[in-house]
Amino acid sequence: MKRCLIITGGSVDYPTAFDFIKKYKYNMIIAVDGGLSSARKLNIHPDYCVGDFDSVCQEDYQYFKKQPDIVWETHPPEKNETDTELAFHLALKQGAESLHVFGASGTRMDHTLASISLLQIPLEAGAECWLIDGHNRITMIDSRKVLKKEEAFGKYVSLIPYTEAVTGVTLRGMKYPLDEYTFIQGNSLGVSNEIAQDEAVITIGKGKMILIESKD
Q1: CB atoms within 10 A of CB 155
Q2: Among candidates 89, 93, 60, 59, which has minimal Cα distance to 75?
Q3: Integer Rg of the chain from CA
Q4: For residue 116, which of 131, 100, 126 has the smallest C-alpha distance?
Q5: Angle at CA 12, nearest 5°, toward 17 and 30?
Q6: Could you tell me if 157 and 138 are in contact, meaning their C-beta atoms sit under 8 angstroms apart?
Q7: Which run of H or of E encompasses 45?
Q8: What span, in angstroms and rounded, lies between the C-alpha atoms of 195 and 70?
């Protein structure tokens, strides 16, 4: 599986990021605008730097500008896409099948919500994508998903409808099982479930859901 690491400009939990970098082999690393500062702190060498670079520390920007073998994709500040969306499209264009994204959350709730909505881009392209911070691992699903207890990110598993309705939701191996349930937007039933067996199986008939593994 071709795996891509994306470091974007929000808050990065460095211990969590270091754990993932140590555990996984990444075929491609993309630093996004202000994410260059986090990439430098993580001591990683990006393959691509993407963005309008209007919010990056100039010292970090110049540091990476001097590094060899980095492809720069510079965009104007006045554009239709966020820098993170541009990074998603680049990763998929380069054949990424799995994306791990750090820095997608933080103090800017508009950016956080926008990043969550962008999860449908890799989903529709047939790639898995996780937004990761110190307390959450977030993805979007529209079909069957298996969660193994030994690989769980945290204690809690929450399912939040992204489309207006999500039908045929069946949960097995979880503390609160469901059978062919229909979620609608504004329904919080799926919050704070837990994996009760060695693995949990989520099945969706139609629609998209945000899947959040979280810990306090």
Answers
A1: 12
A2: 89
A3: 18
A4: 131
A5: 70
A6: no
A7: none
A8: 42
The pLDDT profile of the chain, 216 residues, written as one tens digit per residue, is: 899 999 999 999 999 999 999 999 999 999 999 999 999 999 999 999 999 888 888 999 999 999 989 999 988 877 788 899 999 999 999 999 999 999 998 888 888 999 999 999 999 999 999 999 999 999 999 999 999 999 999 999 999 999 999 999 999 999 999 999 999 999 899 999 999 999 999 999 999 999 999 998
Alpha-helical segments (H) within the chain: 14-23, 35-41, 58-65, 83-93, 109-117, 120-124
Task: Report the C-alpha gap between 128 and 100 in whole angstroms.
Answer: 9
Cα separation, 15 vs 211, whole angstroms: 23
Alpha helical stretches, state H, 24-162: 35-41, 58-65, 83-93, 109-117, 120-124
Torsion sign across C-alpha atoms 149, 154, 157, 162: negative
Q: What is d(CA 182, CA 168) in angstroms, rounded to the nearest whole number?
A: 6
Q: Which residue has the tokens 């750090």?
A: 102
Structure tokens at 10: 């929000």
